TrEMBL record:
Belongs to the SRP receptor beta subunit family. It is found in: Endoplasmic reticulum membrane. This is Signal recognition particle receptor subunit beta. It comes from the Eukaryota. Keywords: Endoplasmic reticulum, GTP-binding, Membrane, Nucleotide-binding, Receptor, Transmembrane, Transmembrane helix. InterPro entries: P-loop_NTPase, SRP_receptor_beta_su. The chain crosses the membrane at residues 12-34.
Length: 290
């Protein structure tokens, strides 16, 4: 019995209507599916990364190269951002009895992640601040590295706190924006305050640094709030209140209080020069596993 469905000829070959529809459907659908798969990148995709920020000379680039090369390499002050792709095995180093470190033999079969190093000079810090993205599959976590041996100097302490304040403020603004545009609040972003150079004699312990930073952030917040009030900003001026970190009705800043404003902070000491960075790498591993 002859087919009742209409047929066409393409290049001299008969083609039925169902086959034509299936072919057209495949031609249209396959590129769309591939595009979605390529755009939906996982945590080891280039759009997802750890952000490495902090004042200059704190050891950021040294930490990146230490993870990348598995050895200490002399560095110079960076003026541009640099992103490297690293296998997760670098976070799982094995230390032998003689103090030598090695990475797991199956490192090549593991997943990878990206680490973005940014310059710490005050005029170049925008490179880090504009890299913060709390959207899905974006910034996995932020490592704010500081020199724990210079915080007894008031100018270096002020410089460190000013940078940290601005960074936390950017996170808070993005978190508030995402919270207003979604039905549920997003998870706070993990932030590690890595207190480097704890092997030096003048280094402060991480517990003292934690208290010191919270105190100084509170003082800076109080100064900024008073400046806004003296400038005539009213309590309903949301644009000016965006400059206030944390609870706008309090001058205090605590790590616990900042959690509801989009950031979960951990403070840990270490030393790249002494290759004591296990706690930092463990923190990074926990972020990747989250």
């Amino acid at each position: 019995m002859a087919s009742l469905l209409p047929q066409w000829e393409i290049l001299g070959l008969p083609v039925s209507l169902p086959i034509l529809f299936i072919t057209l459907f495949a031609v249209i659908l396959i590129p769309v599916v591939l595009s979605q798969l390529l755009s939906s990148k996982s945590k080891d995709g280039p759009s997802s990364f750890f952000l490495l920020a902090g004042p200059r000379d704190s050891g950021k680039t040294s930490f990146l190269l230490y993870l990348q090369e598995q050895t200490l390499i002399p560095t110079q002050t960076s003026t541009t951002s640099a992103t490297v792709k690293l296998p997760t095995g670098v976070l799982e180093q094995i230390k032998s009895e003689d103090g030598e470190t090695s990475i797991p033999e199956d490192i090549g079969s593991r997943h990878s992640f990206h680490l973005k190093d940014t310059p710490g000079h005050p005029k170049l810090r925008s490179q880090a601040l504009t890299s913060i993205n709390l959207g899905p599959k974006a910034c996995i976590g932020i490592i704010f590295m500081l020199d724990s041996a210079v915080l007894s100097s008031q100018p270096r302490l002020t410089d460190t706190v000013e940078y940290l304040y601005e960074l936390l403020l950017v996170i808070q603004k993005q978190y508030n924006s995402l919270s207003e545009s979604s039905a549920s609040s997003p998870d706070p972003i993990p932030l590690l305050i890595a207190c480097n150079k704890n092997d030096l004699f003048t280094a402060l312990p991480s517990a003292k640094i934690s208290i010191l930073l919270q105190t100084e952030l509170g003082r800076m917040k109080e100064t900024k709030r008073k400046g806004l009030l003296n400038a005539g900003a009213g309590e309903e001026d949301d644009e000016d209140l965006d400059r206030v970190l944390g609870d706008e009705n309090s001058d205090h800043v605590t790590w616990e209080g900042l959690r509801e404003f989009g950031v979960e902070i951990s403070v840990q000491s270490g030393s790249i020069k002494s290759t004591h960075a296990e706690s930092w790498k463990s923190w990074m591993s926990s972020c990747l596993d989250a």
